[in-house]
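Worked example 3 (structure in, sequence out).
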């Protein structure tokens, strides 16, 4: 009679694991400069996205995507569901931090020239990640169905209507008809919990594949003290785990000190004195107030298009002038304009 198989042997026979491949992956050398958090900040928004997935699923159990019940369901989450206020607050703050860290990551990549050949396509994928994340922020904010989120969604539909040639169709598609109501809320809900997260997961997978294919951009001279590579396991993995624990501590502190609030319920018959978007749209909102809707949409679209295509524009410039650092000037001017518009709108809303 044969001895019973050990649990580990039973599991390995049913779920084969290439241990040599795992050991090779764990021993993979990581460039030395990635010891510094700001050089590998891309992992931070990825972790925050995981936090959003978990908290978002928990919130979905109680949220009702209906104009009559959406606000009340959010109110119940905040006041009646056990720890609902905490989960909602963590979800909200993780979305803010995800956008902040994505912006910081893209700034690091831009100002260090890490988007250049052969990483142009990965820069474009990164831009797609940022735009998709902003879309998730907008749809999530709108689902609360309070006064400011309702009228913010109304303004967003009007902005879409200003897009040349196809604006009216885009606006009707978002609203699900001529007015803001049940159809638009349903579509925002589907975008927030289904379409946009699926796109985001796909873009993250592509982004990681491109990093694996091209490797991490090298920085510094070979003689630099940061040039010595280190192991992925356990060195880099432990660093990422430590960062994840710190982020959970930070999210907990923010949720406790600044819990997610709730304004008045949406009222289509009463327009607020100031329609306020989330802070990451302040610059766009201020830009809209400086010109007509169509001119603002065209110029903002042109600006976003230049950012997405910048690796090719920069390549064209450097082909004619190899020592050119026009990207630094363009980036500095662009960041200054965005910051000034954001601060301008913030001061306007405060007063």
């Amino acid at each position: 009679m044969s001895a019973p198989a050990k649990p580990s042997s039973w599991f390995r026979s049913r779920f084969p694991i290439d241990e040599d491949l795992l050991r090779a992956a764990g021993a993979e050398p990581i460039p030395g400069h990635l010891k510094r958090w700001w050089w590998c900040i891309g992992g931070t928004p990825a972790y925050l996205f995981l936090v959003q997935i978990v908290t978002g699923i928990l919130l979905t159990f109680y949220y009702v995507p209906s104009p009559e019940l959406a606000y009340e369901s959010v109110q119940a989450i905040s006041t009646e569901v056990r720890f609902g206020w905490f989960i909602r607050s963590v979800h909200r703050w993780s979305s803010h931090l995800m956008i902040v860290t994505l912006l910081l990551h893209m700034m690091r990549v831009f100002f260090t020239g890490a988007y250049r050949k052969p990483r142009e396509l990965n820069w474009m994928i990164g831009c797609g990640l940022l735009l998709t994340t902003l879309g998730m922020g907008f749809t999530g904010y709108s689902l609360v169905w309070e006064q400011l989120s309702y009228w913010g969604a109304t303004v967003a539909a009007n902005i879409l209507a200003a897009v040349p040639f196809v604006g009216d169709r885009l606006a009707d598609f978002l609203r699900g008809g001529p007015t803001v109501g049940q159809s638009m809320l349903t579509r925002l809900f589907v975008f927030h919990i289904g379409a946009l997260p699926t796109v985001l997961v796909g873009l993250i997978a592509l982004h990681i594949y491109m990093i694996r294919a091209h490797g991490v951009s090298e920085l510094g001279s070979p003689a630099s003290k940061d040039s010595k590579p280190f192991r992925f396991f356990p060195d880099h993995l432990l660093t990422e785990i430590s960062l994840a624990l710190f982020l959970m501590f930070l999210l907990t502190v923010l949720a406790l000190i600044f819990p997610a609030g709730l304004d008045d319920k949406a009222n289509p018959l009463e327009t607020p004195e100031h329609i306020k978007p989330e802070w990451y749209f302040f610059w766009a909102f201020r830009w809209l107030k400086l010109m007509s809707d169509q001119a603002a949409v065209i110029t903002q679209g042109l600006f976003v298009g230049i950012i997405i295509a910048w690796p090719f524009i920069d390549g064209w410039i450097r082909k004619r002038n190899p020592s050119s650092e026009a990207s630094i000037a363009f980036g500095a001017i662009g960041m200054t304009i965005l910051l000034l518009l954001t601060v301008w709108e913030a001061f306007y809303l405060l007063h």
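Notes: The CA atoms of residues 62 and 73 lie 7 Å apart. The chain has a mean pLDDT of 89.
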